[in-house]
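Researcher: Please translate sequence to structure tokens.
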Amino acid sequence: MIVAFSISPMAGDETGSVTEAVAAAVRVVRESGLPNETNAMFTNIEGEWDEVMAVVKRAVDVVAEVSPRVGLVLKADIRPGHTGQLTAKVERIEAALEK
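Model: Translation complete:
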């Protein structure tokens, strides 16, 4: 499965920034060892249901350490028996664009 998610504290630091809290969540994802990528809006992670959801929970918990309220947006592509789709899906689109 691939999960695209975004976590943010509902309040920023004294400047209004949420960068440090989001960076802590991304650090959890990267340290998980699961295939992942981060873009301007979401972090994508690929793995089995339980392992992916455990990482998302840990990321939320890290952000909750600095904010009493946390926002989470999550979208999942659940396709049993398929791995390596984090890059394969993009490769298929790129190949179609070359036609």
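Researcher: Any highlights?
Model: The chain has one domain: 2-97.
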